[in-house]
Amino acid sequence: MTLGDESSAIEVRAREARYRAFDDAVGQGEALFQAHHLDDQVETVLYRLLRGSGPRGLRGIPAERSLTRGKVVRPLLDIGRLELLNFCRDARLSFVQDPSNDDFRFDRNYLRHAVLPVIEQRWPGYRATLSRAAATQNLMVTWLEEEGLHIEVGLMGDPGISFDRTDSDPQRLATRLHHWLATEGLSVPDQRRLVEFARQAMFARADRQPRLALGPTVLESWRGVIYWHASSVDIALPRQLVAGQIVKTPVGRLEWRSDPLGIPAGTRLSTRLPGPGERVRVPGGRRRSIRKLLQERAVPPWWRDQLPLIEWEGNPVALLPVGLLSSAKPDIEALSTDPLAPVWVPDSMRQLGGRVVD
């Protein structure tokens, strides 16, 4: 296997390569037993602690891990390295020493040979202590998984978790966020950034929306919920469509339902984004600001400039996700045979089965 020359990333690439090899080698229902021991567990916990890992990382090496068809089992995590070495020598079992384990370029080796011996001089029972700490973190992660995150889903399908503004401890909210991101397989930011973001979300004024950038995505607080959404949102409807045509986009589907005041099936329509401060006529004849309409419908702020008007011959007849408008075309009702109204169904709502946050 080829790993490249950058020493800073070679450990990560080597680990990924090992698991690809395990996946290839372990068949359906089979188990691969590994000899990770207590010292490996302690090194892992301390190494991840120094890197700022949260509860999921600080629970250490799991006793079992699923592969594509089988699993990895590690039954020796409670037994120290010296005890295993003595057993192998007494039983005259041969074993292999990896020469790369003595290379101080790698952080884990530096911990093993330079840091842990110093710790042992001062705290000889550190192995058992750190092992208990890892077990405690494992219990916390298990509790979080069993308790569930209670995912909320916003009107446009963005998932989020709600929080209590009366809670005075941002650390608790940061822990939930850490668990959520890790569960989704996302890159988890430094814990200090998460705690600071949680603090801002909990204590910000009602008109503020604290944000935390996560590469191409964002965590954003709004109305007591922290949502996860793309940095740049786009409903991605085509410029031209036909009433009754189901349109699937990367973020949802445009569907249609029967409505006596709707648009005749088969009508050729166009879409465009509203202009700044644009107003439309709503059922009842009043003209309303589009931004105000979207606010009243609990459309999150990051979506409000990206939601299209649907037009018939240049007249706005619908606004997503609000629905039908009062058309400026006087004979729309007379022409309406098999009348339809557009309905926007966001993908994440369909997948998560969550409730709409209002």
Report a brief summary of the structure:
The protein has helices spanning about 5-25, 40-50, 55-60, 80-90, 105-120, 125-145, 170-185, 190-205, 290-295, 330-335, 345-350, and strands spanning about 30-35, 65, 70-75, 150-155, 160, 210-215, 215-220, 225-230, 240, 245-250, 250-265, 270, 280, 285-290, 310, 315-320, 325, 340-345. The protein has about 350 residues and is of the alpha+beta class.
Q: What layout of secondary structure does this protein have?
A:
Elements: H1 7-25, E1 31-33, H2 38-50, H3 55-58, E2 64-66, E3 71-73, H4 81-90, H5 107-122, H6 126-147, E4 151-153, E5 159-162, H7 170-183, H8 191-203, E6 211-214, E7 217-222, E8 225-230, E9 240-242, E10 247-249, E11 252-264, E12 268-272, E13 279-281, E14 287-289, H9 290-296, E15 309-312, E16 315-319, E17 323-324, H10 332-335, E18 339-346, H11 347-352
Parallel strand pairs: 1-3
Antiparallel strand pairs: 2-3, 4-5, 5-8, 6-7, 7-8, 9-12, 10-11, 11-18, 12-15, 13-14, 15-16, 16-17
Helix pairs in contact: 2-5, 2-6, 7-8
Keywords: ATP-binding, Cytoplasm, Ligase, Nucleotide-binding, tRNA processing
Protein name: tRNA(Ile)-lysidine synthetase
InterPro entries: Lysidine-tRNA-synth_C, Rossmann-like_a/b/a_fold, TilS/TtcA_N, tRNA_Ile_lys_synt, tRNA_Ile_lys_synt_N, tRNA_Ile_lys_synt_subst-bd
